[in-house]
Design goal:
Blueprint lengths: L2 E3 L21 E3 L26 E3 L6 E2 L8 H4 L11 E2 L6 E4 L7 E3 L11 E2 L2 E3 L14 E3 L5 E4 L6 E4 L17 E3 L7 E2 L12 E3 L7 E2 L12 E3 L7 E2 L12 E3 L7 E2 L12 E3 L9
Parallel strand pairs: 1-2, 2-3, 3-5, 4-6, 12-13, 13-15, 14-16, 15-17, 17-19, 18-20, 19-21
Antiparallel strand pairs: 6-7, 8-11, 9-10, 11-12
Length: 290
């Protein structure tokens, strides 16, 4: 076989080694199908001699999803693929391939050549136990990753990104969250009060969204231990006052959103420890003086 035209069909999966031992292959068109993922083994070829051009593959027009399994597609564009091995085709239309982001708060699709390898290629999980974890038989195990009920959880290939999305899930209290979460989304829940040490142990947390939850009160030490937190959104809540201690532990905070709330009083020392703060939004509140 030299040329294969399988475009404009409904292909959802390509078996590994489909094109292996096809030494005369020159072109494969699988664009405009229903492929959401591609196994790198499905593109693997028998080694091509250096004096023979690599087969040309066309994969555009497929609903590729930006999962960590598909991250390898970027290696065809950025030179990370070792071309000396000559066991993979040349993907000719990679510049026009878009992938759907598994989770992103501001956009849905991105050109696969421009996707951020550190944040855009994510995989979902329900539970995960690292090999170094020796206590996974216990419910309170710190190193076991368990996604809360009715929530969605995502990670990158290195587990340096760990997103917990519990938006609009109806929780009235903070659920038990994975210890190594880097982003927690509780917006749209019904959490009216943050109690002391609500996020204890979340040492890697960088973004926390509690907007539109009905939040009325933040107890002292509610945010204790969040030394890496850079983004905090508590906007669109019936929060009426800041007493001065709420943000004291957040030494790395850069973005703080409290707009569209009911603030009528802000203690003069409320932001005194936020030395890294770059964005502070307070519009649409009820205060007369700050």
């Amino acid at each position: 076989m030299e040329t294969l035209f399988a475009n404009n069909n409904f292909l959802e999966y390509i078996e590994p080694d489909t094109f292996y031992n096809k030494g005369n292959l020159s072109r494969v068109d699988i664009f405009a199908n229903s492929l959401e993922t591609l196994d790198i083994r499905a593109l693997q070829l028998s080694p091509f001699p250096s004096d023979k051009p690599l087969p040309e593959f066309y994969i555009g027009g497929n609903p590729i999803i930006c999962t960590c399994e598909n991250e390898f597609l970027q290696s065809f564009a950025n030179g990370r693929l070792d071309k000396r091995i000559r066991q993979y085709p040349a993907i000719m239309d990679l510049e026009s391939v878009y992938c759907k982001l598994v989770y992103h708060r501001s956009k849905s699709f991105v050109p696969i050549t421009e996707a951020d390898p550190s944040s855009d290629f994510l995989c979902s999980y329900r539970s995960h136990c690292f090999q170094t974890c020796g206590c996974c038989e216990f419910d309170a195990c710190d190193c076991e990753m368990t996604c809360p009920k009715n929530c969605s959880c995502y990670h990158d290939s290195t587990w340096l990104i760990n997103i917990v999305d519990c938006s609009n899930t109806g929780y009235t209290t903070i659920p038990m969250l994975p210890m190594d979460a880097t982003e927690i989304n509780l917006d749209g829940t019904l959490i009216q009060e943050l109690t002391s040490h609500s996020f204890i142990g979340k040492k890697n947390l960088k973004s926390l969204y509690l907007n539109a939850t009905g939040l009325q009160r933040i107890q002292n030490n509610s945010l204790a231990g969040l030394k890496l937190l850079t983004v905090l959104d508590i906007s669109s809540n019936p929060l009426t006052e800041l007493l001065g201690y709420e943000f004291e532990p957040l030494q790395s905070l850069r973005e703080l959103y409290i707009q569209s709330s009911m603030l009528s009083y802000i203690n003069p020392v409320s932001f005194i420890n936020l030395h890294m703060l770059q964005i502070l939004r307070l519009e649409n509140n009820r205060y007369f003086n700050i």
